Amino acid sequence: MKLQFANARLDALAAVVLVCATLAAQGQAAARFMGSITAISGNTLTVKTDAGDQRQVEVPADATLKRIEPGQKDLNSAATMALTDLAVGDRVLVKLDPNATGATPQASLVVAIKQADVAKKQQQDRDDWQRRGVAGLVKSVDPATGFIVVTTGAGPTAKTVTVKTAKTTSLKRYTPGSVRFTDAQPAPLDAIHSGDQLRARGNKNADRSQIDAEDVVSGTFRNVAGTISSIDPTASTLVVKDLAT
Fold first, then answer.
1. Is the CB of residue 178 less than 8 Å from the CB of residue 220?
2. Per the CB 3.0–4.6 Å rule, which of 13, 26, 140, 165 could disulfide with 146?
């Protein structure tokens, strides 16, 4: 079972949401929307919002444009950018000017996360999970100590790794029917059970038998090992002869 990770996109979404919350806290609760740029024509952006609709907005010369990095929490250290720096695919938070009178809404503020920055963060994140991560089947869980024993590998390469969790460890669990990290939800340690699949990321000890986990994601998935009997590309299905039964 291949478990998919997309932490950078989560960071990007979280960053925009946090900025949005900051604006509301500052009393700037004018109409705003979030989404991805699908087209740019002159000073007009077309944005596919997170709600699924397409919206056009003009960005006048006096509008404020800020660029934030994935994971950045507020606008205090955000860099100023020009309209020409925006590109199709960039994530944006648009705050509308309530005093604009034209047929097309005008932006007073555009906060952008560059698609290239998200892609770079995603690659860094994948590399970090590969370098500092461990994946396997849960052998035991001790809620009292926060220790999870995981078995990895098979045959001669099989070993056990102790995953040490703490109050600061991010614990998430895959939702039923999904292996996407973006769908995983926060869950307590006691939601993890023997036989679950688990991935953890953190610093490992010298012999790599223990990891101080910063992130843990787990789930219950049914694995079937067998021989393919037939394939139906039209229906996207396989028939497998289960070796166990």
1. no
2. 165
